[in-house]
Design a protein that fits this description.
mainly alpha
Amino acid sequence: MKFLTVILSLLFLVLSIKPCSDGYNAEDKHIDEVTSNHNHQDDSDDSCPVTCICNCCGMSITYEPIKAYSLKVNQKISTELISTYQPIYGFNFLSNIWHPPQIIS
């Protein structure tokens, strides 16, 4: 079993040494063109190794111009009180518990 593991690991090592070259051949030079439907069924010059997943149609380039927005800065500071919060705590409430101890005689 260990011998089979060594053989398979060497096989994958040898197969992965060949680099990916996705259809790039020196005799296949042509003018670049944009097509909406591209079929890779007829391609026989993709020289991808067994262990490589070539990105034939996996890349798309999208260009969108950056939209410029102009922001309006409002320099006016409002002095109007918008909050209608009424606190329910009475901070001026003095209870008998807060008085100092008194001597009862």
